[in-house]
Write a structure and sequence with these properties.
Aspartate Aminotransferase, domain 1; seven-stranded mixed beta sheet; 368 residues; 14% strand; Aspartate Aminotransferase, domain 2; 12 strands; alpha/beta; 12 helices
């Protein structure tokens, strides 16, 4: 099996597996217990917190969660309610139409609680319409949420400029950095940043919400008050340790991984020269290649390439029967959206694997 679905999840780094094993097998104490084994587990969690924070610049607060979806919900819902509590007129929540469902659907769900959801349009390149963004942010805006790297088309949004607009309007800004953390430069400033362990060769089931100093959100989950009173529930030292080691490796291997992914991208552009790239080619993370070919049935191609793990879009929406809302937002049409595939590669993808996969994909496409 050739694995080319790095946006859905990444292979677990061997170093991460080795670091997690003792905390799964031997050191099983509750990190919130006061006895010595509990304190050892707590110390491991805090060491991991420092490693994850280091890749975020080393400042601010970090709240561990069960994953990025929880972190995003905590930030959007908590942030919107905080701002409306300070000013009842702040009822607008702004995001981009191409956001991941964890952001998009959370913003839309707030409409049931009296908020106004604004979905900003994008151009054919997938980049947000900045004029629409500027017009949407005013004294009514409570919160703005934007993705750093799009999970389906790899486009890098101008989150720094969006933050400046949000700040000028007096609104909070959340950045979904799940696909960009450790791979591309993070926004220099933000109020909140959501990240995930399994997108950086770490374990599934753990993520985090970063908050700037001085920002306190109301909790979504109540109970024992763990995680600085913001997220109750027993932490898994093994998952936190794995996340920390994965973050440390991303920092240490940043240049090496970037060069490797860049070489794979350059070769992929040669191998798929007869295809059209969806989204901007220049404002893009090169480990994500979303392609379309006229007349192609993407679902049929996937069934014919059973030895290749690739995608038609977000793994979270697979099986829904709907074409990608991200591709539709580009204005390419339903047929073109269904003629698109997503190929994702990273640290453990070899050039031979990419070339073999491309040969199989092109042959299957030619048969159609």
């Amino acid at each position: 099996m050739i694995y080319l679905d790095y946006q859905a999840t990444t292979p677990l780094a061997p170093e991460v597996f080795d670091a997690m094993t003792p905390w799964l097998r031997d050191h099983f104490a509750n990190p919130h217990s006061a006895h010595r084994p509990g304190r050892m587990a707590a110390a491991a969690v805090e060491a991991a917190r420092g490693q994850v924070l280091a890749l975020l610049g080393g400042h601010g607060r970090l709240v561990f969660t069960s994953g990025a979806t929880e972190a995003i919900n905590m930030g959007i819902v908590g942030g919107a309610k905080l701002m409306r509590g300070r000013d009842p007129g702040r009822t607008r929540v702004v995001t981009i139409d191409t956001e991941h469902a964890a952001v998009r659907d959370t913003v839309l769900a707030l409409e049931e609680q009296g908020f106004e959801a604004v979905l900003l349009p994008v151009g054919p390149d997938g980049l947000v319409d900045m004029q629409a963004a500027q017009a949407a942010m005013d004294e009514r805006t409570a919160l703005v949420a934007a993705m750093l790297v799009n999970n389906e088309i790899g486009v890098i949004q101008p989150v720094g400029t969006l933050y400046e607009m949000a700040e000028a309007a007096g609104a909070l800004f959340l950045c979904d950095a799940v696909q960009g953390y450790g791979r591309v430069p993070l926004p220099p400033v933000a109020d909140m940043i959501a990240i995930s362990g399994h997108k950086i060769n770490g374990p599934k089931g753990v993520g985090a919400l970063w908050l700037r100093e001085g920002l306190d959100l109301p909790p979504l989950i109540f109970g024992g008050g763990q995680e600085q009173g913001m997220r109750s529930g027993t932490l898994s030292p093994a998952l936190c340790v794995g996340f920390g080691v994965a973050a440390k490796l991303m920092g240490e291997r940043f240049e090496r991984d970037s060069v490797h992914v860049g070489a794979l991208w350059d070769r992929a552009m040669e191998l798929f020269s007869g295809w059209t790239v969806n989204g901007s080619v220049t404002h893009r993370y090169h480990g994500n290649l979303n392609l379309r070919r006229d007349g192609l049935d993407g679902a049929r191609l996937m069934s014919e390439c059973r030895d290749i793990a690739l995608s038609l879009g977000s793994a979270c929406a697979s099986g829904s029967g709907r074409s990608s809302h991200v591709l539709r937002a580009l204005g390419i049409g339903e047929r073109a959206a269904r003629s698109s595939i997503r190929i994702g590669f990273g640290r453990y993808t070899s050039m031979d694997e990419l070339e073999e996969a491309a040969a199989q994909i092109n042959a299957a496409a030619d048969r159609q």
